[in-house]
Amino acid sequence: xxxxxxxxxxxxxxxxxxxxxxxxxxxxxxxxxxxxxxxxxxxxxxxxxxxxxxxxxxxxxxxxxxxxxxxxxxxxxxxxxxxxxxxxxxxxxxxxxxxxxxxxxxxxxxxxxxxxxxxxxxxxxxxxxxxxxxxxxxxxxxxxxxxxxxxxx
Length: 153
Fold this sequence. Notes:
The chain is mostly helical.
């Protein structure tokens, strides 16, 4: 049987504050057993889940989506490499789209900020005559259609 970790040990090993670990547990992102004294004990496999949560957050995935992904992993056993690969495959298209958007932002932001117009209403390159204003508020050119805000009205 694997030795379990206290919340302090999990925090030290993962680099995540104890308060954040308790929050992750409340959200169902990680699981803990309780001792007879009601102290949390985490299986060592929870380190992998904490790392997955942190990395996913860093690329802009919501905690709800992270929980849904983690819920797809088997609860009755330690996830295998195949389990993690299946989860990765499910996210591949979404992450590729995020990468594409980040590259577009990186490549176009300096030109836009550097042009000096400071206004998408007057921008002759991206929004001549403010033609996108009729589509509603928010960014229109960087977001894929599924993520755009619905038209105002």
